[in-house]
Design goal:
alpha/beta; seven-stranded mixed sheet; 14% strand
């Protein structure tokens, strides 16, 4: 047997990869499973975006290797997107690097800046990929607590008590995944000041700004942020293009150049047609987001009803593609609760524990589910509760 690399011992298969096999098996057995676990938009991109990729197939350059930095028009579109929606000015030539999804960027940034033994501040709860990539590049995860008591913001006093001498990078994500806490400019100002004080690269992962959020923000809006911060963004959630894999990393030229050095050794450029579609998507104005929010708002109200039916508590002010909810009183284990609901009601919800130990006691519902499916989920729970009552 050929031995695998030791680094694989530091990570496990992604939770959704394993759980969705179980869901697929249940479906193969004839069970009608409603999947409310995954944040993969089920809505279509705008017709203009699809038309753009179709037309691009006939361009002379469509099937060649593409630039590692993407088409100039794509970078100009991204610069315009940030200027229009965040009021942030960026040099499209030096301060923007298109990515094949922002998840790719997490690996590229880690490879570009972390050495073996460097420490990384990772939110608990937070996106699991931050920790797994940190382990894969042989850096050390150092978790910082986010709790309901602090509104899912970092406790900077507690952070200052840590030994930060080996910390090189800090992952943050606002609007926060999984809780939906929107964040604010005051928080970003504190993060930038913290990064400067301790010479820590702050990376804000920002894919949820335009879902059910009236006040989209960027950490780059803070004066001096480019000196110490990068931001990741994505078209996946904003424009229903998750499978297209279009993201971006933004920051000062020196930081972007370091990420490009990694990226240029790992791919041969984004497919031309996808770039053309992305350019068209970013031309869509605020009316696009309002139209999307109409759908998501109807769904969210229904999910609130479902959560109430399950006796869960939630914050109606949170933003993004999910509803983060506190487990019913007396229920201790999120994973056990989720497994019971899946087994008995064929309804898949995400346990908060996959996002860290501070996710215990919580579950997460996705809004990427048609209204009729949410209605069916409510009916299943209602019927089950009536059945056990009688």
């Amino acid at each position: 047997m050929i031995a695998t690399a030791k680094r694989l011992n530091t990570v496990e298969e992604y939770y959704f990869s394993k759980k969705l096999r179980e869901v697929r098996q249940m479906i193969a057995e004839g069970k009608s499973v409603i999947n409310m676990g995954i944040g993969s938009p089920d809505l279509m991109p705008d017709a203009s975006v699809i038309e753009a990729i179709q037309k691009a197939m006939f361009d002379d350059k469509a099937h060649e290797y593409q630039s590692y930095q993407g088409l100039p028009e794509l970078r100009k579109g991204m610069a315009g997107f940030y200027q229009e929606h965040f009021g942030v000015s960026l040099d499209f030539n030096t301060e923007i690097l298109p990515l094949m999804g922002s998840k790719e960027g997490i690996m590229h940034i880690s490879l570009a800046f972390l050495n073996e033994g460097d420490e990384v501040l990772i939110p608990n709860p937070g996106y699991p990929t931050y920790a797994s990539v940190t382990e894969l590049v042989q850096a050390k995860p150092v978790y910082y607590d986010l709790t309901e008591a602090t509104n899912w913001h970092p406790d900077f006093e507690a952070l200052e008590q840590k030994d930060l001498s080996k910390v090189k990078l800090m992952w943050v994500s606002y609007p926060h995944m999984p809780t939906g806490e929107a964040g604010n400019l005051e928080l970003f100002e504190k993060l930038v000041a913290f990064g400067k004080k301790h010479n820590i690269l702050i990376v804000n992962d920002n894919p949820y700004s335009f879902v059910l959020n009236n006040n989209p923000l960027s950490i780059l809006q803070v004066e001096g942020a480019k000196e110490i911060a990068l931001e990741l963004n994505s078209l996946s959630k904003s424009y229903n293009m998750a499978g297209w894999r279009v993201g971006m990393v933004l920051g000062n030229p020196r930081l972007i150049e370091a990420v490009l050095k990694v990226k240029s050794n790992m791919d041969s450029g984004m497919f031309y047609g996808i770039q053309k579609g992305a350019i068209e998507a970013m031309k869509l104005g605020k009316s696009w987001f309002l139209k999307q929010d109409e759908v998501y708002n109807r769904r969210r109200k229904m999910v609130f009803k479902l959560a109430e039916q399950l006796q869960c508590r939630f914050d109606v002010n949170n933003v993004g593609l999910f509803v983060w909810a506190k487990l019913p009183p007396g229920i201790a284990s999120a994973e056990a609760f989720v497994d019971t609901i899946l087994r008995e009601q064929h309804l898949f919800i995400t346990p908060g524990t996959i996002f860290g130990s501070n996710g215990e006691g919580y579950i997460r519902f996705s809004l990427c589910v048609p209204e009729e499916k949410i209605e069916e989920a409510i009916k299943r729970i209602t019927d089950y509760q009536l059945e056990i009552t009688n």
